[in-house]
Amino acid sequence: MALTDFKKRKRTPQVLTIHSLASLVLHGSFRENIREFLKKRAGIEDYSVGGSPVWCTLFESESGDVVFPLYTVEVAVERAAEPLCNPCRCVGWGHHFVSKRSYHMIIPEGEEWKKHRWKLSLELEEHLFHAVIHCNGFGHLLCINKIEENSKHPHGEELMNLWDNLCTILQTREISVLDLSKKGSMDLRLLFGVACRRPWFGYWGYKFCRGSFGVTEQHYERAIDILSSIDLDKIVHDFSKTKNGKLIEEIIQTYRDATESQLVTIGDLLQFMLTFKSKSPVKRKKVVALVATSSKISSKTIPQDKIHVPSDTSHKGKTSKRDSLASFVAKMDGRWPSRRLEYAVNVIADTLEANGAEMCRQELRDAVREHIGDTGLIDYVLKSINKVTVGNRTIHRAINPTTRLLEFSLKPVANGKNSGIKMEEQTDVQFPEPALHVNEDLLFLYNNVILGYPNDHLVSIATSAILNSKHFVKKWQVKGNAEDTLLRLVCQVRPTYDELVEKLTRPLPPGELVVLPQSVGASELKAKLQCALRDTYCIMDKFTVSDIKIAKLKGREGQDLLSYAAEQGLLAWVTGYGLDLSTSLRYEGGIDDWKVDCLCGARDDDGESMVLCHVCHVRQHTECNNIIEKDEAPPSAFACDRCSRGKKH
């Protein structure tokens, strides 16, 4: 989307980046911070969605090539088509009190927002990004469609970086995600679980929340341990008599030859393969010694571009005018490992050579993106590289005096010298063999090894456990800094005995975060806390605070108590009166108490399809009862196995 599309507005749009966003410091709870953010960093739109106001914040992509909007829709519960939260129920937050407001954050795809904003824009699944955060700071990442990294949209990793920074700045409490993401036909939670011992979202701190079909966190961690630690030699042996055994052995050996690191387990192998975010093939490397030298190159020297693996890793010297590849990488302080930086430089050199040795920055960047998906890595290297020697070639960067564009060129090293890398003298130097494509190899191993391991029930159970672990969550700690003069209390309302017995039968929801000056007095504390609770929850619309006790500081009251409250995130028990127990907007999971007792061990609603037994009124999974979705029996016709057996006796 072009910036000119937004310049027609009355207000001059402010364009943010992830780095400029970090300069915004907010000290309150999410309920307060989101209002401050919209006031300072967003512009109100001249339309509404279902009567709900809409704000727009413009962001610039990490590469600087794309400006895209983040729309925030504030939905009051009385205007919501569905006032209760189904994701809360499925993730185990069905006992949370219903929040008065929710904030939908949406990055639409192209013109889709303009087409559908008058209809059900909040329910579209085609958005590039969609999340919702309740005003108590708990929320859900609903969808992130990971656009290909050579498209005109910000890609998945970039969107997640933005989202994670935004959640941190706004001081959210917890964010859940239903991980159904795929790479082609491969489930990423399984692929990354085996390769990296965490889901794809785990890179940003998301961890196991709950599993389906009775899978617990212990089951999940055990399954990860089992699958990721399968020895590659064992795989070769176990598949040796199968039709794919020879190809599996060849693929394993190809990637073992392509790295100097030891690949021992299937986890090691898949993690190494995932680092090649490239459509270009991985070439098979013969065992050839590379040595650093300052002497002249012998007649056996082979140009570096003939070997598709990082090289020149030990040479540290540089000439007065040029950097060797190793010295260039050594001076870079980015977040990427040396191996990936070296690989990026090699791809840049190969791309320049394949395109006539001269290209402007944008042309070069677009061409390199065909081989490297990480645009942040590409931009970082292009910003830094100049007069760097790769093999017998040097990469130069300069401003074209006519076009004023940044251009890159590739020139041969003067006097026939190169970066000091040469082959050990051998009588039989072998070149790389034909290549295999990384994505094809990943898919083949995923389907035939992970999903198709022969005659191993344990591997099959572990695979099912990971695939049935779809709900992940990230938690932010309640804390301040050393110079913070604010008091952060997590205020837990304690209902009366009668309220707990009659209406509030579920576990108590998390306390509400309240941020106050440490010098606040007791009466002011009560007033501010009461205001915060009334502003946040439907059930507390008329709640009156009568007493507050801080759990770790019993026996002190008023200002004396608060003067000792230096620790952040202290739990404060709140008593009072006026809870609206008659409202249907009591719990996010609804007021009906589901009883779940399934054959698989599930004891709570996990979001999977269930059927109600008309005899005992207990719910079980349709899958566990062999009920096909389209032929699902109505509740009045289904009797669970226990009730059916009871009738027979």
TrEMBL record:
Cytoplasm found in the keyword field: no
InterPro entries in alphabetical order: MS1-like_ubiquitin, WHD_PTC1, Zinc_finger_PHD-type_CS, Znf_FYVE_PHD, Znf_PHD, Znf_PHD-finger, Znf_RING/FYVE/PHD
Keywords in alphabetical order: Metal-binding, Zinc, Zinc-finger
Gene Ontology molecular function: any one: zinc ion binding
A Pfam family recorded for this sequence: Ubiquitin_At1g33420
Source organism, top-level taxon: Eukaryota
Residue ranges constituting the Zinc finger PHD-type domain according to the UniProt record: 597-644
Protein's name according to its UniProt entry: Zinc finger PHD-type domain-containing protein
Organism whose genome encodes this protein: Rhizophora mucronata (Asiatic mangrove)
